[in-house]
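Task: sequence design from structure.
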């Protein structure tokens, strides 16, 4: 027990250290390099009129906070879905939930832009949440009829294809200017984030994260089976609804601001479970949040620096690092079943 506690403490310290290192590198690296002395002067409030201050304070810092908040949100959302379906392959992207959110956001975005209206953060989140809930509804209907998780995953992929096809169909008849805006968003990126958007993200993600953490005890009971959870007084029907709601809110917030981001919700919770050596929610939820923040900060750093000044989509980078983890999990799971 003592060894496990020490392991968890060291794992949290390592994640915090990685987060601090990635933040420092993200501050320095870019089209304009900043020295540590420049960063220290800017953070202490000196020389507020300089170009360096504008680059760090108005561009890089909001982007960094967005990557950390949304990466953590997506990872926690994946952990909640994996708990709900009792399977490590479950995730917002694989089950088509992110694609459903993308579809509704695209429809609303084209509608707003077609009428010359500005689509605010609240409208984006509401549209993404509606799309997430619609896709989740389809997944739940299929889950009641299908017991094998592999079949459910295939159905989720099919839902994703259907949503993408409908999105492409709608885009075909949209104005050219609207297509450009939609294309930039649908590629997935943390660029262009403003302080107002960061405030909205924090107002949505942090309360949802705290609620998820407060549910750690019933989640732990649910992991041991519905019958065991009921014996401890957990209202399983309400608990499952709360789990779906929180997961959808977190994944919807990510899709609304950064577009569809792949594999973070599947890969990171599994890596954190291996890292901490436990599946206890009281450890996994904050661990997944920190792990998702680190993973997305690292991916964002690669996306904007590897082929600078050309920027890669964040989803492409997360897929490169996340997909091998998913393949490894599936092979390992198949081997364990033999």
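Answer:
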């Amino acid at each position: 027990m003592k060894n496990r506690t020490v392991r968890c403490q060291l794992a949290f310290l390592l994640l915090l250290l990685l987060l601090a290192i990635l933040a420092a590198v993200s501050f320095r690296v870019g089209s304009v390099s900043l020295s540590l002395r420049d960063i220290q002067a800017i953070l202490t409030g000196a020389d507020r009129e300089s170009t360096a201050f504008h680059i760090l304070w108005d561009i890089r810092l909001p982007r960094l906070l967005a990557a950390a908040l949304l990466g953590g949100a997506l990872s926690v959302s994946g952990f909640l879905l994996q708990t709900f379906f009792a399977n490590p392959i479950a995730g917002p992207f694989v089950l088509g939930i992110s694609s459903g959110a993308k579809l509704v956001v695209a429809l609303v975005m084209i509608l707003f832009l077609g009428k010359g209206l500005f689509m605010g953060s609240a409208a984006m989140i509401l549209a993404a949440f509606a799309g997430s809930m619609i896709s989740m509804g389809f997944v739940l209907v299929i889950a009641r009829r299908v017991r094998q998780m592999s079949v459910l995953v295939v159905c989720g992929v099919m839902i994703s294809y259907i949503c993408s096809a409908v999105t492409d169909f709608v885009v075909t008849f949209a104005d050219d200017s609207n297509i450009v805006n939609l294309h930039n968003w649908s590629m997935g990126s943390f660029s262009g984030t403003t302080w107002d958007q960061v405030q909205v993200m924090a107002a949505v993600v942090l309360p949802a994260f705290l609620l998820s953490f407060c549910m750690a005890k019933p989640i732990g009971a649910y992991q041991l089976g519905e019958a065991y959870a009921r014996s401890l007084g957990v209202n399983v029907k309400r608990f499952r609804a709360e789990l779906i709601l929180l997961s959808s809110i977190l994944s919807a917030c990510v899709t609304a601001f950064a577009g569809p981001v792949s594999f973070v919700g599947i890969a990171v919770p599994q890596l954190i479970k291996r890292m901490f050596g436990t599946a206890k929610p009281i450890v996994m939820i904050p661990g997944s949040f920190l792990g998702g923040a680190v993973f997305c900060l690292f991916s964002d750093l690669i996306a904007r620096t590897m082929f600078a000044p050309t920027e890669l989509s964040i989803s492409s980078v997360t897929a490169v690092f996340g997909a091998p983890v998913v393949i490894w999990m599936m092979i390992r799971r198949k081997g364990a079943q033999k």
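The chain has a mean pLDDT of 83.
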